Amino acid sequence: MIRLVGVEKTLGGQPVLQGLDFSAPAGKLTTIIGKSGEGKSVLLKHMIGLLQPDRGQVWVGDAEISRLRGKALNEVRKRFAMLFQGAALFDSLSVFENVAFPLREKLGLKGAEVARRVDEKIEQVGLAGMGHKFPAELSGGMKKRAGLARALVMEPEIILFDEPTTGLDPLMAKSIHDLIVTMQRRFKFTAVMVSHEIPEIFAISDWVAMLRKGKIALMAPAADFVKTTDPEIQEFISVSGPIRLSGVAAG
After folding, report:
1. Is 134 exposed, middle or buried (0-12, 13-18, 19+ CB in 10 A)?
2. pLDDT in tens, 101-141
3. How far apart are CA 145 and CA 126, in angstroms?
4. Is residue 112 part of a domain?
5. What three-state secondary structure class fits 119?
6. Count of domains in the chain?
7. What is the mean pLDDT of residues 3-9?
8. Helix, strand or coil for residue 143?
9. Is the pLDDT of residue 176 over 80?
10. What is the average per-residue pLDDT within 214-224?
11. Segment (H or E) for 118
12. How far is residue 29's CA from residue 160's CA, in Å, rounded to a whole number?
């Protein structure tokens, strides 16, 4: 669904992506991990066209988007939704209006159809009856749920998650991860998530990729990734304790 081929990007004179190759399998949840400052969020921004590579190609399906601009790029972006670290809700809008915003602005929908789709998504993320509340009245976890409802309401093919559990306690982080997995399995969208939640992400991801020194050092199914013999990767994923896959310790 998403492919980056030989992508290079320098920001502020500092090389960030250095000939990176990456593929996100369609209909699966792929999580990107790596040390702070390695460029994980930069990688996500290339996938949706917020950044263009200095060299290389970015493919979304059969469209090469790295040189697209304007209307052509916006057409590709209609296939995407993105959940940011802080949920990026409009403070002056209620939960209902936040979720409705893309339907009205991008699709031009009105009235009963908007209400039906918004109420459905709000309920699916566990916020039934909360549509009238404003972001300032929500807990951190509730804001993430509202952000996910807004991402889902456009029924996208692809959703990008940029550290969706940042700032949450471990129990709330688990509930958000569980919700993301439930929604991904239900609607079969392609998901790419940047996360620092080691080792939890191995229990929820189909594939895991590690970004190191501007390239993908390893990408593999979660169960195979944890078996790597690369000492640097093994050290990185082991610092938080034993990894559990389907309830069984692995490593």
Report:
1. middle
2. 999 988 888 899 999 999 999 999 999 999 999 999 999 99
3. 7
4. no
5. helix
6. 1
7. 97
8. helix
9. yes
10. 96
11. helix 111-124
12. 10
Closest CA to 230 of 239, 247, 218: 218
Q: Is 118 within a domain?
A: no
**CATH number of domain containing 56:** 3.40.50.300
Q: Residue 117, CB half-sphere, CA atoms under 13 Å: how many?
A: 20
Out of 73-87, 107-121, 174-188, 190-204, least confident range = 73-87
Where residue 250 falls among pLDDT bands split at 50, 70, 90? very low
Residue 206 lies in a domain: yes
How many CB atoms sit inside 10 A of residue 28's CB?
17
Contacts (Cβ under 8 Å, ≥6 apart) of 207: 24, 25, 28, 29, 30, 31, 219, 220, 221, 222, 225
Structure tokens at 167: 């700032």
* Domain of residue 25, residue span: 1-79+190-251
Half-sphere exposure of 69 (CA within 13 A, CB side): 1
Determine, yes or no, domain membership for 204. yes
For residue 11, how many C-alpha atoms fall within 13 Å in the half-sphere facing its CB? 14
Residue type, 1: M
